[in-house]
Design goal:
This protein has 331 residues and is an alpha/beta fold. It has 2 domains: 7-231, Spore Coat Polysaccharide Biosynthesis Protein SpsA, Chain A; 288-331. It has 11 helices and 10 strands. An 8-stranded mixed β-sheet has the order 1-4-3-2-5-8-7-9, with helices on both faces. The longest helix is centred in the C-terminal third of the chain and has 21 residues, at 310-330. The chain is globular.
Length: 331
């Protein structure tokens, strides 16, 4: 069956069902501007709130517009977005997307959703706002200036991103060259993306055998682009928990998330930005007392042990033992 998601389709389609604008940028604002996009589901608003707050607190010399693409939202989260825009004199746009067009895309990891595929259509909406924008996953915080993106030359490419040496992934996907990049941080040239028909080509993979891929959007974009992108230097601070590495963004890409557990100073910094955001604080450093988090209690017990906090260490090891047993009983 022919792919219905053609250029003509995206030229005319209404890709969203709701749009809300919180426009608090002052008319006299002469700062350089950056546009940033995110795609999340409703439970992920607190991490997004911490991330946006960290960007605004760390980059007061830049004027920001944020675009939040979702499948749904609670009224509380919508209100908190507007409060953020009002406090920091920025613009925030909330788009509720029509999710029906993504239903034939595969899901590889149970905790992921098809919301991740929204990033594929963003340029078709962003073209009325800007020529370039930054896409960021929402499991980061900013600890340095984003100004370098304003001088990033994509040299005629649609995407600037961080590349990884992943020969096994490249071979598995049967790619024609060895460049593989992360789609969790992308500097996008809107016109070039549309000219190269990246959206349409990604949509042609709908209905494909999920076993062909190890990931979701990232694999599909890499298959379409096939290395025709601009590598940019690594921007991640304390990458892979190596505290000697300096950067401008902390990416919480590991198993343990700061909205679940506090293990080190980077986790504490994330909690700080959540505290000063409009979303509820999480004062308890311990993870949820459910079997899937048994391993996290062991890690936190080790942290308390190094700090000499014996009672807290023993509490963590107690819950580690109880929850591990619970995990085994569940099979």
């Amino acid at each position: 069956m022919a792919n219905q998601f053609t250029t003509e389709y995206f030229e005319h389609a209404q890709l969203y069902t709701e749009k809300h604008e919180f426009l608090y940028k002052e008319a006299t604002d002469t700062r350089d501007a950056i546009h940033i996009c995110h795609n999340i589901n409703d439970p992920f608003f607190p991490p997004l709130g911490a991330e946006i707050t960290s960007i605004l607190e760390t980059n007061k010399d830049i004027s920001f517009s944020f675009y939040v693409f979702v499948d749904s939202y609670s009224e509380k989260n919508k209100i908190n977005l507007e409060k953020t825009a009002q406090k920091y004199k920025c613009n925030i746009y909330l788009y509720v997307m029509d999710m029906r067009i993504y239903q034939n895309f595969h899901i590889k990891v149970k905790r992921f959703s098809r919301v991740t595929y929204i990033r594929i259509v963003m340029p078709w909406i962003m073209r009325k706002y800007t020529k370039q924008y930054l896409y960021l996953d929402s499991d980061m915080i900013c600890v340095g200036s984003l100004r370098q993106f304003l001088t990033t030359d994509l040299e005629g490419k649609a995407i600037g991103a961080l590349t990884y040496h992943t020969p096994d992934r490249v071979a598995f996907l049967k790619m024609k060259q060895d460049v593989y990049f992360s789609d969790g941080l992308m500097w996008i040239d809107v016109d070039e993306w549309i000219r190269e028909k990246i959206t349409e080509q990604v949509f042609s993979y709908q209905g494909a055998d999920p076993h062909r891929f190890k990931g979701q959007t990232q694999d599909l974009i890499n298959l379409v682009v096939e290395g025709n992108m601009k590598p940019i230097p690594s921007l991640f601070h304390h990458k892979n928990k190596d505290f000697s590495i300096q950067g401008i963004l902390i990416h919480y890409s590991g198993r343990d998330k700061p909205w679940e557990i506090v293990l080190d100073a980077d986790d504490e910094l994330w909690r700080h930005y959540l505290d000063i955001s409009f979303w509820d604080s999480m004062p308890n450093p311990m993870p949820p007392k459910t079997p899937e988090f048994y391993h996290s209690f062991k890690k936190l017990g080790q942290v308390y042990g190094k700090k000499g906090q014996t009672i807290k260490k023993l509490e963590c090891y107690f819950w580690y033992a109880i929850l591990k047993i619970g995990k085994k009983m569940k099979g």
